[in-house]
Amino acid sequence: MQVPAQFEYFKATSVDDAIALLTRHGPESFLVAGGHSLLPMMKLRLAEPETLIDINGLDDLAVIAVESDRVRIGAMVRHSALLASPVIAEHFPILTDAERVIADPVVRNRGTVGGSLCQADPSEDLSAAFSAMRATAVIRGADGERQVPVREFHRGPYETAVEHEELLVAVEVPILAGSSSAYAKLERRAGDWAVAAAGAMLRLDGDTVAEVGIGLSAVGASHFVAPEAEDLLRGGPATDDAFVEAGRLAARHCSPSADQRGPVDYKRHLAGELTTRVLRRAARRSRGEEA
Amino acid sequence: MTAVGEPGVQDPSVQIHAADETPRGYGAMKRKEDARFIRGRGQYVDDVVLPGMLHGAVLRSPLAHARILSIDTSAAEAHPKVHAVITGETLAGLGLAWMPTLSHDTQAVLATDKVRFQGQEVAFVVADDRYAARDALALIDVEYEPLDPVIDAKRALDPDAPVIRTDKDGKADNHIFDWESGDRAATDAVFADAEAADDQLVVVQDMIYPRVHPAPLETCGAIADMDPVTGKLTLWTTTQAPHAHRTLYALVAGLPEHKIRIISPDIGGGFGNKVGIYPGYVCAVVASIVTGTPVKWMEDRSENLMSTSFARDYHMRGEVAVTRDGRIRGVRVHVLADHGAFDATAQPTAFPAGFFGVFTGSYDLEAAHCAVTGVYTNKASGGVAYACSFRITEAVYLIERMVDVVAHDLGIDPAELRMRNLLRPEQFPYQSKTGWEYDSGDYPHTLQVALDKAGYAELRAEQADRRRRFEAGEPVSLMGIGLSFFTEAVGAGPRRSMDILGLGMADGAELRVHPTGKAVLRVSCQSQGQGHETTFAQIVAQELGISPDDIDVVHGDTDQTPFGLGTYGSRSTPVSGAATAMVARKVRERAKIVAAAMMEVSADDLEWNDGRWQVAGDPDASRSMADIAMAAHSNLELPDGVEGHLDATCVYNPPNLTYPCGAYVCLVEVDPGTGAVDVRRFVAVDDCGVRINPMIVEGQVHGGLADGVGMALMQCIAFDLDGNCLGGSMMDYLLPTSLECPSWELGETVTPSPHHPIGAKGVGESATVGSPPAVVNAVIDALAPYDVRHADMPLTPAAVWCAAQGNPLRPDLGIT
């Protein structure tokens, strides 16, 4: 049986209370949201926080709200809630696709959107999906809220723009009329980390790509995006050849590392293959050819 | 805590199944033991809490190969909740720093000189609770001098390879054993002939059955309670072989055997992982002696995966001599067996490569030979079963893969090639070219049932159509159809040829019939989920004509059960199940005498009819077992020399192994763009002889098939070249889930074993043995457009894609 080291535990009653607790207990205090990354790490003693601050009671962070031109997803929204949300499915099929393949139902029932982003695992799915959507992270500290584009949110593996005495409170995703999107991931087994994953958002203007976002996960893509492939497509024809070429560019510009999920050449191939597939799918959805 | 009788709490004594569902003998019935399991009333080792119990934790080596320069335990000992810190030095003082393995080697209990694999036991802390024990591990300071490790088994015998077992006097290499089976000269002659003939050829293929781990849901552990007053040691422990363990503790630790009681309570899966004795158990015993209190040690998941018995790790070269029209003449095999740092393989003494000798499979050959070389590497020891019947998994994989390679090279359909070469029913009992006597089977029939169930011809037609579309550039997945036909050899075994550390492999059984006709069966084998409490009750029920609900099965406690070698190698039903039938027949014969006295007739006039002793030809004159049991305990006058009561004991020494078989058909879809494999269908037709409880048989097959899909597609313990274990957690060691498994399609043929009292053959491991080659054959078949002839398990998406690129991965080493 795996047992963690000793720690203190506090249950935050509000966002301000959580920030105050973080301030009081210093850098060895950790927030716990769904806990499905942190608690296993604690049991393996890879993480030994002195203090846990539980934000599971902060229900006001567990809301999905449609605002005029965007959807605000609270940081404590559970994966299962995102997966089940008709609003999300309507505007951002990329998120519904991604949620379907995030971990398993047990983890999705507990894990949160904010927790996933803040864990900033290089194989995390929502980081790629939100990056493709050019979403914005809303971060609150003692001095109020600030906004950081998700594409600038990650500072490296397991590092984000959220400072110690701050909380990610929400992610805002812009609603882009006429756009569609898709996400695909390959894993060795359900619940394993991705071998590679890709997400794409497309807004077509007739047969031309008006706007595009491409997110990649698990393949060492800087900020989880494939800007070279986006630049190639933007303003060009939305053809299969273009999507294949975008896949090639995405593959060329990412930098996967070898592990038991595969060697570098395979993961690079996969980055390209999945990029092409999600672009095709987003285009078909955009044209109403696929749900 | 709620109590029985309160709302919402069911009385656990209530059977889950209705009485009218219970057959009076064989047939599907729900498992008697599930009443407690599904209510959370099972009692596993970690559920046992004794007054004053302390908790142990093991400090493990972070390095694969290193000299220990010093161990400083002073800070750990100063921890306020720590009672003792035990090191190899402590144990050396007691003569317990090393212990014998099940393969006549030695294994360090706690390292004294060197560490030899990552995760090896170095020190043992005893503390008030498991948290403090873990905390104190971090306070132990071990100074290591790193040494070059031996990781690649293929390099273990290089002249310049570091020597791992420097503890063995004069040991100058990493060689463990050479073992061979079959007739080398005759086999070489067949191969020479085949090479020279125009109408024949020799097909060669290298393949790896990579290291996997049984990964039972419950990890290993023990609670040692040495009573300082009586000198009796009670050891609750996760063991598949409680009696063998008791004898080994007596021999190793010098404890008198009658003062040792091994209790193996409910066990959460074994699969071979719980056959051996682990250092943690020994440390718990020593800790209880040292502290005078009970000590519990339960390993965590990573400890289980990194340090306890692995399985497989066979590097094999198969050669087949075959005529061009598809008659297989001979098979020749070379194996390099990676046994890790200590040779702790669990298998009968005369079989260092287990029963690998059945590599001739289900085919009629002219000659066969194999040579196996075992080597030490800086990896965890073991080489146990994992549902493999002593290396039959490796053997079946080898031959079934080779048959497909031959089919590939000859351009013959693999089903047709198998049909041409399978043993025919009239050849049984069949003496194999490596000395095994297959008891019974109708192999062509079993294969035909599987092919029909799968719709083989239709599948091939669908596949041909799919390939045409693929070659025309359509974005379709590739369809693959894989077969395997396996012969198992289970139920070890005859005392004359099979023992473990000198203990012959016969099993005892005791049966008591109480005055009211309720019975208690006591058996030596311990269930780890096989359902013995149900099936063994059904065996007694069948023999005595009473309900299985009226029979309790006692097992897993050496003070309460007769001696026997335990549960592994699918031996429970073939050996203990036979003992159960035989002891029940003894009771029935005793009952006959009593019944004769009751009815005042001669016993010779009685016949056993529909579960009653009846006067021949007079159905109205009969007595049930309950009537007879009461009379046997009463003042009824019995013939001179008859003692009364019905209780009996017996020991069953199997005359031969039993040989279950099966034909499996796997259908996969492979995504050529990603290498991902989807198992679309799996047809499994098993012949395990007489089925006592078909539902339990099917459950066992389901589990084994999932196991096989896991090994074929995802499970693997690889090591990087520094010796780091790359499968040390459930994040890295992937077990299949329901999402990777299709809805299994099962079928059966029944060929009773002619020498087993009830014709049963054992089935626990059949599906694990038979399914991996079917899955691999299916994936390779799917990759035909890429002309792939072989790729090693696990066939992860990366492995499939790399094989299709002509650049196959090596599964035993870290991917770089």
Automatic annotation (TrEMBL), chain A:
Name of this chain's protein: Xanthine dehydrogenase family protein subunit M
Pfam families: CO_deh_flav_C, FAD_binding_5
Record carries keyword Oxidoreductase: yes
PROSITE patterns, alphabetized: FAD_PCMH
Gene3D superfamilies in alphabetical order: 3.30.465.10, CO dehydrogenase flavoprotein, C-terminal domain, Uridine Diphospho-n-acetylenolpyruvylglucosamine Reductase, domain 2
Domain FAD-binding PCMH-type: 2-178
InterPro entries: CO_DH_flav_C, CO_DH_flav_C_dom_sf, Diverse_Substr_Oxidored, FAD-bd_PCMH, FAD-bd_PCMH-like_sf, FAD-bd_PCMH_sub1, FAD-bd_PCMH_sub2, Mopterin_DH_FAD-bd
Keywords per UniProt: FAD, Flavoprotein, Oxidoreductase
